[in-house]
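Office hours follow-up: a student asked to see two folded examples consecutively, so here they are.
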Amino acid sequence: MLTLNHVTDTSSYAHTRNAEFSINATNAIGLHQRWYESINNLDADTQAYVSRLLSSTVCEFKLRNPNVTQWSDLQLCDSLLVPLGSILIDTTMQRLLDVFWVMVLLSKFDAIKIAPIQVYIDSHGRVLAWDGQHTAILLWIVATHILRVDPNSVMVPVVRYRSSQKSKMRECFIAHNSNEGKKYLETIDQYMQMVFGVRLDKSQNPDWIKTEQKQQHLEACGLFVTAAKFNDTYRDGAISRLQEINKLQPDTVGWLARYLGLVTQGQRAVGEKEMVMMAHYFELCAQEKIPVTTGYLLELATVTTSLFNADFDPNSVFWIKSAKAYYNWHSRMDFDSSIMPRFKKEPLHGMPFLIAQLNKSFTQRVPRSKSGSNFVPAAEDLF
């Protein structure tokens, strides 16, 4: 009998991971602790690799920076306050101004989002911006069009880079605005920030609130979201594919989570194709306003488990059976001989088979496929 009793197991890895979202105050740790905690979370082989990588990277740093022998040699940037009106835009380094982007920034203005403008001081003492022109123009509009003050009378923060080598600054500009120089937030990072934002900061952002509601559904079913960089995608209850979680409404994620909790029983990770297929199925249920009750989910999980062990991995019997049904269907159709059958292990061809199978084996209402394929499995080709 399938149950969700396993979710009460507070010793599970999923419970431990989800507990990270239960912090009710800012958690502050030092740089040393942050580094070594991150290293210690890796497996032994990865730790050894990081150790070797650090040694080789240190050597690379020394080769590229032979003049850096003490801290003062680093010539780091420093922060200043300068009159807004004194800032000049170096048009040989900045992109063309996007006035529409400035309007977007103005419509969503929040002082906490204003980053210091990046500048250098030339030989004439001029303050030249090589990055941050949209921020500078935004502040100029606030000063001149909203507050009606002289830009020369207000001070703004800038970061001064101690270099007059424009080639270096151009490299920095490209790096700061590309993957080379920024560690962009991955999908999992954005998800976590939203949950923390609601639980810790009491954010009222509607999208963030929806994400936190989805997290509640996952926690209730012994599931947790993760990514390859956390080295735990194989753990029981792990969901490493977030596209579907992000796309679905919270209630639909609730159905999906309860189904996955039933078929995994807290004893395996959730497969990527399993996420794709079942998220697509429940999305169809939502579109057709099918009432997905506890009884519905219990029977659905029982059917998929008994027929093909609820396994949608690429080499599973589900895809073997549906591929055979597809090729048999294709051979019966009066297609042009030049049209070669190409079965895809995706909802395009998997969903028509799953829907047909459920119409045969499931007593509850089943949505229409809507996969875009004309594929109709024959009754004899089903389980």
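And the second, which I mentioned at the end of office hours:
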Amino acid sequence: MTRMDDLVLATPHENGVVEVILNRPDKMNALTVPLIESLVATAERVGRERTTRAIVLRGAGRAFCAGIDVTRFAELESDSQGTPGRLTRRTHGTSNLFQRAATVWADLPIPVIAAVHGVAFGGGLQIALGADIRLVAPGTKLSVMEIKWGIVPDMAGMVLMRRLVRPDAARELALTGRIVEAAEAAGLGLATRVVDDPAAEALRLAGEIAGKNPHAVRAAKRLFELATHANDAAVLVAESVEQDRLIGSPAQREAMAANLEKRAPVFADPEDL
């Protein structure tokens, strides 16, 4: 049996790229409370390390994530102390534990790329929607599946879908549980693009991003997150604030020099976490 610490793996690569892997392949990475707890803890630990510059999020085996493990649904009805009604308790800022498994990726200061294959159903899809970029294999099946089990999307799906999917399309997906394949998912906004090998392409893309000025990368992510809820005036001011910090900084000067000298830049790990 897989130990709790094995439910989510963190595999470091060159240049500060880390793979975070859902590791319950015999169950298509179906979600249980221990897996969700491990996923949140791993994301918060890896994402806050100074040396991490990009994360690739994927599932082991033949699927990204099949959603809630319905054979252990009772486990999701109460917490480890057996107290019902835990869902309304805000245990992670504005989120509960289950929502945090999706919202944590947006809150991290670095880019997160989800490599999605096989299926991404229900909570699995909502976790993927929390990533900055979603690369999806041809033939992958995606569904906002909760209605099938008589429930609603509650792992931040409503917040995340409104950023990505037209309101009427989101309603159709949530009210029917309809399964869509990769190409349609990209058209709807559930996927960024369809690629033959999402894991390989995600690592390549993460490596490319990791080679950029890490201060500028973090600043861009902050601006994109702000832009999801702030008004235009606030975002325009924030752009100027971020740019003032970047222009003339050691890392920005190194980016300029490397481009002019046609060499790879060398950046120190950021101090501002």
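Two things to take away from it. The first strand starts at residue 8 and ends at 12. The chain has two domains: 4-209, 212-260.
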